């Protein structure tokens, strides 16, 4: 909960700072303290709201996951806050899991959100939980996925 409160305070501060500077975009203001992370204040507020509405019941209010998430005998939601291994997935993989859900032994262990969440809402949720990642985790993910975001040709 403490991490959520800190993130909310940072967002409020960033939002307040941008009000008096019309030439500075919300994106620039939001990324100022997040080395290389691109998100807007609006998308983070949307992401946290949507996460708490749709994901927190299983992944926890701070995206900390279920304590048994590494136990192969238990269908438990993993952490999304940078302490688990979701950073090993590329963004398209994260999107696919959210859209299509997860099955284990033919049984659904995570619901499919395709048709219930828009692409923008899914992006906002991912942006929010990535904002929780420690800088070194985000940087490792960014480097591993550099070709995905690099312009081609």
Q: What proportion strand? A: under 5%
The helix/strand class is mainly alpha
What's the number of extended β-strand segments? 2
Series of H and E elements: HHHHHEEHHH
Sheet with most strands: 2 strands, antiparallel
With strands numbered from the N-terminus, the spatial order across the biggest sheet is 1-2
**How many distinct helices?**
8
Q: What best-fitting shape do the alpha-carbon axes yield?
A: globular
Residue ranges: pLDDT <50 for 5 or more in a row?
9-33
Distance from N terminus to C terminus (CA atoms, Å) equals 44 Å
Radius of gyration (CA) equals 16 Å
Task: Summarize the amount of helix as a percent range.
Answer: 40-55%
Mean pLDDT: 80
Features:
about 150 residues; about 5% strand; mainly alpha
Plain-language structure description:
The chain has 153 residues and is mainly alpha-helical. Helix content is 51%, strand content 5%. It has a two-stranded antiparallel ribbon. Strand 1 and strand 2 form a beta hairpin.
How is the topology of this model organized?
Elements: H1 2-18, H2 26-31, H3 41-54, H4 56-59, H5 91-100, E1 102-104, E2 107-110, H6 119-131, H7 135-144, H8 146-149
Antiparallel strand pairs: 1-2
Summarize the structure.
51% of the residues lie in helices and 5% in strands. The protein has 153 residues and is mainly alpha-helical.
């Amino acid at each position: 909960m403490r991490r959520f409160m800190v993130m909310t305070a940072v967002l409020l501060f960033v939002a307040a700072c941008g009000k008096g500077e019309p030439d500075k975009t919300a994106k620039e203001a939001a990324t100022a303290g997040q080395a290389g992370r691109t998100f807007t204040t609006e998308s983070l507020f949307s992401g946290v709201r949507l996460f708490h509405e749709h994901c927190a019941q299983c992944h926890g209010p701070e995206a900390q996951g279920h304590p048994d998430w590494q136990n192969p005998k238990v269908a438990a939601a993993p952490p999304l806050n940078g302490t688990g291994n979701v950073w090993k997935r590329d963004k398209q993989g994260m999107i696919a899991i959210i859209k299509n859900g997860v099955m284990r032994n033919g049984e659904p262990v995570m619901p499919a959100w395709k048709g219930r969440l828009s692409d923008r809402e899914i992006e906002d949720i991912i942006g929010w939980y990535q904002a929780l990642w420690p800088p070194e985790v985000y940087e490792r993910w960014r480097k591993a996925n550099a070709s995905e975001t690099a312009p081609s040709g």
